[in-house]
Amino acid sequence: MPKLRVHNFAVSLDGYAAGPGQDRDNPLGRGGLAMHEWFFSTRTFRRMHGQDGGDAGIDDDFAARCTENVGAWIIGRNMFGPVRGPWVDESWKGWWGENPPFHTAVIVLTNHARPSLPMDGGTVFHFVTEGIEAALTRAMEAADSRDVVVGGGVSTIHQYLRAHFVDQMHLAVAPILLGCGESFFNGIDLRRLGYEVTDHTSSEKVTHVVISKQSPLREQAERTAACCREHGNGI
Amino acid sequence: MPKLRVHNFAVSLDGYAAGPGQDRDNPLGRGGLAMHEWFFSTRTFRRMHGQDGGDAGIDDDFAARCTENVGAWIIGRNMFGPVRGPWVDESWKGWWGENPPFHTAVIVLTNHARPSLPMDGGTVFHFVTEGIEAALTRAMEAADSRDVVVGGGVSTIHQYLRAHFVDQMHLAVAPILLGCGESFFNGIDLRRLGYEVTDHTSSEKVTHVVISKQSPLREQAERTAACCREHGNGI
Fold first, then answer.
1. Poorest-confidence range of A81-90, A180-189, A221-230, B15-24?
2. Overall average pLDDT of the A13-36 stretch
3. Closest Cα partner for A185 from B175, B153, B180, B162?
4. How far apart are CA B206 and CA B12, in angstroms?
5. I want to staple A72 with a disulfide (CB 3.0 to 4.6 A). Which of A105, A168, A187, B150 is the partner?
6. Is the sign of the CA dihedral A11, B156, B210, B30 positive or negative?
7. Whole-angstrom Cα distance, residue A60 to residue A48?
8. How many CB atoms lie within 10 A of CB B32?
9. Backbone Cα Rg of chain B
10. Which of B30, B185, B201, B206 to mutate to test the interface with A (most CBs of A within 10 A)?
11. What are the tens digits of pLDDT across the range A60-107?
C-alpha cells in the first residue's frame, strides 16, 4: 500500500512551525528560516536545487528520505505562495523558480480553481478545490504506486492527521525559540489520533523525531480520547 | 550573584509538562511519569533517594547539576501535594516521605498559611503566602549565597520567567506524545521575555536543552515584543 508521509517538517523547541508575519519576503514568517538551517546545509538539499557539495551525516540521512519512493506531493496554498483569495492572474508559479525541487505532480489544496501548471524538471502543479480526500486521490493516482508526501503547512498536515491519513511524519525540532507564530502542537491531540514517537535521533543541529500511526488505530484512539475528553483539553 | 535556576524539568515532544488528571495516584498526571524515566535511571536520582547504582553519562551529567551549589528550592503548592484550598490538617508532608530529596529549605508558594515543617535529612518546608518575590527573598536568605532552584510546576516557573527572575532553565524533552495536559509553551513567549537556547544535547532517552536569560534583556525583549504584538499571538 502506498503511504502518506511527512518529511523534514521543522518546528521550533516551543512548537512553532512558522514565525509571525508570513509574506513574500518571509515565506516561513519572521525568524522561521532559522529552523531550516540544518536542511539547507545537507547534500540532499543542495542536490535538489542543482548544487554540488553539502554535508553528509544524520541530517542528510533524514533529508534524503523525502526523495525516496515518492511519486507526488500535496501542499497547502500558503506553501505554494503568498497570494490570498482568487488568483488575480497566473503569474505566481510558486516560491521555487522555473525548476521546482519536486519533479513530480504537486497537488495544491485551494478554494480557487486554476489550470494545471507544468514547470521545468517534471514538476506539474495541479490545483484541487474539492478538499483533502479528492487531493489525496489525485495524488495517489499521479504517484502510480509510489508514496505521497504532504509538504505543509500546519493546516494542511493537521487536516490529513485528523483524517488518520498520514502514515509517518518526520519532524526536525530545532533548538531555537520563536516565541510566537503558527503552533504545530496546539489544536491537535496526536496521541488521541493514534500516533506515537517511533524514532528519536539528534545531530548537532537538530533533533529528528519520527511519529507513526499505530495499529489498531481505533482501539488506541478510544482509550486516550476518553482521558482527554474528561479533562476538556483535548481537541 | 546567586542565580535562580530550573533543572530536570521534563516536557513531552508536544510540549506538555504534565498529563491530564493530576491526583494523589498520578502526581504528574496520567502518562506524565514516562517523561521522567531518563531521570529515574540516573546515578544522581538514585543517590538522592538513598540508593546505590544508576547510570552515568549525559543524562546523569545534567541530572547532577540540580545538586551543585544549591541552597534552597521554591516549589508551587501542586508540586508539594494534591491538597487544594485551606489545609484541613497538617498530615500531608509532601510526596517524598520523611526524608525528602532536597536537604535544604524548600519554599512552598501557597495562598494558605501553615507553620514551617522540618523533615529528616535537612529539608524544611516553609509556606509563603505573599507571592513570588517574597518567596524568592526568603529562598535567597536561606540559600546563603548559593543558588536557588525553582522546582515547578508550570504555573510557578511561568511566574518566575515572566518576572525575568529565572537565569537558566534546563528542559528535558522526552520523545513521547502526551496529547493533552498542562502545556509548558502555551501562554508564554520565551523569546519576547529575552530567553534563548544556549545548549542542546541528546542522549538515547531525551533531548537536553538549556535556555538562558540574555543580556541586555530589555533591548532584546523590546525588539521581539514588537513583532509578536503586531500579530496578536504573543502574550
1. A221-230
2. 89
3. B180
4. 10
5. A105
6. negative
7. 12
8. 24
9. 18
10. B185
11. 999 999 999 999 999 999 999 988 899 989 999 999 999 999 999 999
What pLDDT shows up at residue A235?
A: 39
**Residue B151, domain member (yes or no):** yes
pTM for the full model?
Answer: 0.89
* Alpha carbon distance B146, B113 (integer Å): 26
C-alpha cell at B19: 498529563
Q: Flag whether residue A222 sits within 8 Å of chain B, measured between CB atoms.
A: no
| Residues A168, A190: Cα–Cα separation, whole Å | 12
Q: What is residue B229's predicted lDDT score, i.e. its pLDDT?
A: 58
B222 CB near a chain A CB, below 8 Å? no
Beta strands in B105-194 (DSSP E): 105-109, 117-118, 124-128, 147-152, 168-174, 182-183
* Nearest alpha-carbon partner for B146 in B64, B67, B69: B69
Q: Which domain holds residue A35?
A: 4-184+196-207
CATH number at residue A126: 3.40.430.10
Residues within 8 A of A (CB atoms), B 160-219 only: 171, 173, 175-181, 183, 185-186, 189-192, 195-197, 200-202, 207, 209, 211
Q: What angle is formed at CA B202 by the lines to CA B200 and CA B205, rounded to 5 degrees? A: 140
Number of Cα atoms under 13 Å in the Cβ half of residue A79: 21
pLDDT tens for B45-68 read: 999 888 999 999 999 999 999 999
- The helices-and-strands tally (H runs, E runs) of chain B is 7, 11
Predicted confidence at residue A233, as pLDDT, reads 45
Ranges assigned E (strand) in chain A: 4-12, 16-18, 70-76, 105-109, 117-118, 124-128, 147-152, 168-174, 182-183, 195-202, 207-213
Task: Tell me phi and psi for residue B139, to 5 degrees.
Answer: -70, -40
- A234 part of contact set with chain B, CB < 8 Å: yes
Please name the amino acid found at residue B3: K
| C-alpha cell at position B46 | 538514585
Give pLDDT tens digits for B150-208.
999 999 999 999 999 999 999 999 999 999 999 999 999 999 999 999 999 999 999 99
Task: Give domain status of residue B103, yes or no.
Answer: yes
Assign 3-state DSSP to chain B and report helix, strand, coil percentages, each to 5: 30, 30, 45
Around Cβ B71, how many Cβ atoms within 10 Å?
18
Residue B91 falls inside a structural domain: no
Number of domains chain B contains:
1
> What number is the ipTM of this complex?
0.87
Residue A174 belongs to a domain: yes
